[in-house]
Amino acid sequence: MLNQIVDLLQMVGWQTAVLFLVVFFIGLYWIQQPVNLPPGPTGWPVVGCALKVKSGETHIAFTNWSKQYGVVFSVRLGPQLFVVLNDLRSIKKALHEQADDFSDRLVVDFAKLLGVEGSVVFENGTVWKERRRFGLGALRSFGMGKKSIEHSINEESRYLLDGFADKQGKPFDATHLINNAVSNIICKICFGYRFDYSDPKFAELIAILGEQLSDSSSLFANFKSAASEARTKRNAEFIIDFVRKIVQDHHQSYDENDIRDIIDMGIAEVKQSKSKEKHGGRNKKEFFNDGALIRSVIFLFIAGTDTTTQTLLWTLMYMALHPDVQKKVQSEIDEAIGGSRQPLMTDSPNMPYTNAVIMEMQRMRPVAPLAIPRKTRDDTTLDGYTIPSNTCVFVNIWAVHHDPATWTEPEKYNPARFLSADGKSVIQHGSLITFGTGRRACMGENLAKSELFIFFVNILQRFTVTFPEGKATPSQDGSAGAILGPRPYELCGTIRRT
Fold it and tell me: What is the pLDDT of residues 33-48, one digit of tens each?
């Protein structure tokens, strides 16, 4: 039989045979395409449109395609089908009006390695609702929306400001200091204590998280190299081991009459679940066990760290780029707070310009430009198009935040767009969806807002930030993985004389 095939190929010619096979597989590829999909760019079998997307610029490519194919379009990157929602109307229609169809999460590779059980971010269905209930209750119990969290942020700000002062006005990259400061807030909530900025294990944890969240292949599993997969696996093992040891320590010192942090609250839930199971009550074992607790803490820590860090780094960059804006913020700080005390959230209503600066930064450079990918639970429709079950759905926050139909000159940095005509109050725009929308919107939104305001005001209350003289202005394009952060840059922090 093999000899007959070889003879046939020799007779028709190898080139003709290869061409036939290519045409055959292309035809097979198109025959297998689902019908009535949203329109989109044409791709090749296997690779799809992957070669048309520059690394780290997927949100830009999606936004450009939406102008050509419509606000709801489909595309294959590799063999995987994606549907992308690019305007507020389609996003709200999917995530609000058809939430049952579009609220499940697509589990990315890094989450699979960490383990999905226990993750308020990646679990779905009834068990996710139980995780969210626990997560929201835990965050509120340990400060979110309360004075106690403001005290923690201001306390951490003093360490951060000392770090700035130690640089003595010389150029430095603020990433390490800000990342540590932000991380320590969620550490106090989850672990009950903070870490010193020089702690080597903690520094390694922060570096690993930054590496994973800056990896664009974390959203597109088909494009991971063997080396990248091995590195991701090592990183996941390090994070799990780091948190597991802290949970074990908490078990040893646990006191039911002294619940110190989220881990203690989780241990109480685990013990309650075991007790109910033992006495024939409702079995909550599927909801609360030690493994789920470890992963709950991991995902709370991840969600509460890098996004706020990158937003602060973007904001400081733009203060150095726009010294006139920085001076206005500092004037407002001096008038509303002065220099003798640290800021409180009660100061926020009296500081509209400062809030507008933060909001404009969130609009211009959303740190999660494609949010966390969703997937369809069943076959469904949207805007008359058919979307198959288990299709990955992206919410293109970048496109919404740069829509010229909503924002005048969207590429222009203009905090005044969030101010009333007299500049005395903040305008809330429904199209600012930094924290997502719908039933799976970020549950730590209030905590993040408190951190952004208090850390930012603390820094500009004491320092003026500038770029080093004689060096090129840093790129404003950013570096996009799962998170969009600025490329590494240096600034100088000069102590203010007020």
Answer: 678 999 999 989 888 9
